[in-house]
Amino acid sequence: MRKLIITAAVCGAEVTRKHTPYIPLTPEEISEEACAAREAGASIVHIHVRDERGNPTQNVKVFKRTIDLIRAKCPDVIIQVSTGGAVGMSAEERLQSIYADPEMATLDVGTTNFGNDVFVNDMPLIRHFAKKMNEMHIMPEFECFEIGHIYNALRVVKEGLIKRHLHFDFVLGVPGACPADIRNLVRMVESIPPEATWTVAGIGKHEFEMAAHAIAMGGNVRVGLEDNIYLSKGVLAKSNADLVEKVVRMSKEIGREIATPQEARILLEIKN
Ligand code: KMH
Ligand code: ZN
After folding, report:
1. With contact defined as beta carbons under 8 Å apart, do 130 and 162 qualify?
2. Ligand 2 (ion): which residues have CB within 5 A?
3. Which of 56, 61, 104, 222 has the fewest beta carbons closer than 10 A?
4. Which of 121, 89, 87 is nearest to 107 (CA)?
């Protein structure tokens, strides 16, 4: 089986210090967490950033500062910025992150209920983001919260807006979106082109269950405090590295080795 690519989603936009004292918020904290996660076995770090008050922002300067700090400390890790930001942000606000010189960016490929909110990703937004990423040679990761989102991604590919290897992230278990269930995961995996790669992000208590399925099925895994703050039932993870280390242990137990960032670049056909 191919080596496992682990993504660490280090802070997200929704988790606050009320949920866990371990969530990193400043560029310094986020970069520390990102590099510790890389040290633990993550080859990609998925980053959001926060303003001075800890609220989500897509400010390009904050992204650039965070990316500079990560590159200074752990230059080889693949940096994937969020273009999802937080619900309610405008498209242009969300897209600022791609101007901070990342290698990868998320491309959310469909509208979904997101708890009590609606996370809006209509086709014009998807096309606009895809076009920009393609122009700027940034590798998109298609974020699919529902099975139909896969077909939106394939549509923009067919329209010629993305011209590279296809990589999907199935985000399963967001309240209001597709539940984290093995049947849903299998159906989604069967729906992408055979040459495409995929990862799964199980939200909340489903994080490690989805990780186990992906490890066994030959997919890849995303974990991190953005998606889940617990290492096991009732036990808070003290860092993103804690969560990554658990996935490394699970994978090695069944004989699947972990990809380095350089190996992940080859698997994802990222040319840098
Ligand atoms: N914060 C969510 C509304 C992404 O990073 O692209 C969107 C999100 C997806 O986290
Ligand atoms: Zn995110």
Report:
1. yes
2. 82
3. 61
4. 121
Pocket test for ligand 1, best of 16, 82, 95 (most atoms within 8 A of CB): 82
C-alpha angle 187-188-189 in degrees, rounded to nearest 5: 95
pLDDT tens sequence across 238-248:
999 999 999 99
Which residue's CA is the closest to the ligand 1 atom numbered 7? 84
Could you please state the CATH topology (level 3) that the domain comprising 6-268 is classified under: TIM Barrel (3.20.20)
pLDDT-above-90 percentage for the chain: 99
Average pLDDT over residues 106-128: 98
Q: What's the CA gap between 212 and 207, in Å, rounded?
A: 9
Taking 70 as the threshold, does the pLDDT of residue 272 lie above it? no
* pLDDT, tens only, 10-32: 999 999 999 999 999 999 999 99
89 touches ligand 1 (CB under 6 Å):
no
Does the beta carbon of 114 sit less than 6 angstroms from any atom of ligand 1?
A: yes
Domain boundaries, the chain: 6-268
State if residue 86 touches ligand 1 by the CB under 6 angstroms criterion. Answer: yes
How many angstroms is it from 254 CA to the middle of ligand 1?
A: 31
